[in-house]
Amino acid sequence: MDRxxxxxxxxxxxxxxxxxxxxxxxxxxxxHALPAVLPVAFEVAPDGRLLLAVRRGSAxxxxxxxxxxxxxxxxxxxDTRSGWSVLVHGRADILRDPEQILRALRSGLRSWxxxxxxxxxxxxxxxxxxxxxxxxGRPVRHS
Amino acid sequence: MDRxxxxxxxxxxxxxxxxxxxxxxxxxxxxHALPAVLPVAFEVAPDGRLLLAVRRGSAxxxxxxxxxxxxxxxxxxxDTRSGWSVLVHGRADILRDPEQILRALRSGLRSWxxxxxxxxxxxxxxxxxxxxxxxxGRPVRHS
Lengths: 143, 143
Hints:
With 143 residues, chain A is α+β, with helices and mostly antiparallel strands. Helix content of chain A is 15%, strand content 47%.
C-alpha cells in the first residue's frame, strides 16, 4: 500500500543538522522510578555532543550526571501537519573541563531562563534516530 | 535566596487546562528497553483522560496498550524565554468502545498526519505535574 503519510526515517547526520536548528529539547531521565521529561536549552557542540544548559540550583544536573538518558527535540507545524522529531540516547556527564565550559559560555548557550552561569551537561550520542512527519501529498478528507 | 527564575509548580487542574490549549504532546514509552519519545496529536476528553490519536498501521498503539506511560506537552517561547511544561503519568489503553471512538472522531481529533481513521489511545492520568518557566523579572545579563 502506497502511503504518503508514512514517516520518513532520517539518518544520524540529518538528525544532528535538524537538532542544531532548534534552541530547546527535552531530556528524559528516571526520577522515583518514573520517566521524567524536562525541557532544556541545548546546542550541538562541534564534536557532535549535545550540550544541555541546566539551571544552576536545580537537582537536574546531578540526576543526569553519569547516567544514560534520552533526549528528544522536534519542530511540528500544526497548520501544515508537517515536521520532524529526533531522539538521541547516550550518556550524560556534567561538563567539568574549564576550557569546554568557557567555550559553551562563549557560544551563548544559556539555560532556558537565561541565567548567566548555567551548569552544562554533555550528552554523547550513542543512538540517534529521527523521522520527518508530513501529511503532504495525502488528501485530508476532514476539514 | 530570592530567585525570580524558580519554576512555578502548577496544580493538576491548571495542568489539564494548559494541556487543552496545545494540539500535540509527546508520549514516552519503553522500546527495546530504552525510552522512546513520540510526538502525538491529542486532546483532553471531558472525563479528564487524554486521548492520543495514533496513526493506524504503526506499531505504537499496540506498544502503548495496557502499559503505564508518560506524556509530556509544553509551550515554550524562545524569544521571551517563558512557557510551561506538563508531565502526566498513567495507564494507556486502546479505546475500544464504539461510542467513545465516535465521540473522539466527532471532536475532530486526528493523528498528526490527519488521517481520517486513527487509533485512539486513552491515557488515564494518575500523576500530573507541571511548571511554568519564566525569565520574567530576572535581569538577563547577556545579549
